[in-house]
Amino acid sequence: MSTSFHNNIEDIFAEACELHSRLNFATAEKIYLELLEKNPGGGLIHYNIGLLYYQTEQFNKAIAHYMKAKKLAPADPDLLFNLALCQKQLGRLHDAAAGFEELIQISPKELDALYNLGNCYRELREYAKAEQAYLRLLLENPDHLSANRNLAYLYHLQKDFDSALKYYNKVLALEEGDPQAVHMVAAITDSGAASAPAEYIRDIFNRYSETFDEVLPGNLKYVVPEKLRSRLDSLGYPLSLFPKCIDLGCGTGLAGSQFGPVCNHLTGVDLSEKMIEKASAKGIYDILQVSEITSFLETKSDEYDLAVAADVLTYMGDLAPLFRALTEAMGEQALFCCSTEDSDQPAFSLCPNGRFTHSPAYVLKTAARFGWQCIDQTGSRLREEESNPVTGTLYFFTKKED
């Protein structure tokens, strides 16, 4: 093969790299593919077009070229890392974990590989392997925030509360006021917190928004919206169509889809903007608002005839602010329905899982303080946690007549 041919390929490759660096992906891809027709054994060309496909989220194509590059040249850490990232993006977690393991054999102190390896094993529920990956990372960088946070989560999930507390406190030392760590330390130590921080709730549900509709009804067998609607139908309430309604903590619209047919106008409110995006795509609501629900209600007066709070009070301890706001925001003959998880304590408790439970006596007493009377109270299975049923109470309240 002539020197001029080599020089020509090198010049064309340099042009493609320049276009690639300027994010002119379409032209760069065309040139890379033309080069591969002339030189299919060009490992660097396969690597570069693999990177281009990764950047444009064409992960299957990226993997194909990365695999060819891997066969044509000695194992390269960047190549192995990018290949494993592509596999992780496609949910091929076992392949991704194997790729990160291979990289760590070459570069034992590759922190990004250790972190991603821990994440793969965490998602695969291979918690012992995830723990070891995070601990190896922390030996090299004890102040790695995300590794400390994920390790705290792993220990918390496995009910090793002493270890979880150690790493939550490390998170707080690295990032003072971290909302998840603050809330979980309160949950483990039973510090008497009155509610979950808004930032914690927002972060949790933004993170779960993509899988929320599948995980809750499927894995967790969550049935609160259906049961609330069924109880409403059996009450014989005077209104069969409510003029203005609000779904508090609407999430992706699981409750809205149940109550929409009995609402002439339905507003959904949630702290998580990603949940609101999911709800918006369903076309259930007339109005959607990203807001903390009590703050939102405090801006309204005699506005709503029906309010629904399905699995929302579990993120509030003290219910007085909510009932106070509802009193002002709801009309004279309004109906409020909600669910709680039951507590055997006199009022409310923050459990180690970060959720609040409420005694029925406390719920009824607090509602009555702000002019609400219970017209229906039903014990019910709400969902499952680790295959065990979680029980609670469904309530329907109306305003007391003056």
Number of strand elements = 9
- The proportion of strand residues reads 15-25%
Termini separation: 98 Å
If you compute it from the alpha carbons, what radius of gyration comes out, rounded to the nearest whole angstrom? 27 Å
SSE run: HHHHHHHHHHHHHHEHEHEHEHEEEHEE
Number of helices: 19
On the 0 to 100 scale, the average pLDDT is 92
For the biggest β-sheet, the strand order reads: 3-2-1-4-5-9-8
Please indicate the count of domains. Answer: 2
Q: Main beta sheet: strand number and arrangement?
A: 7 strands, mixed
Which architecture name of the largest domain does CATH use? 3-Layer(aba) Sandwich
Any idea what the CATH superfamily of the largest domain is called? Vaccinia Virus protein VP39
Q: What structural class do you assign from the helix and strand content?
A: alpha/beta
Overall helicity: 55-70%
Looking at the structure, what is the overall shape?
Answer: elongated
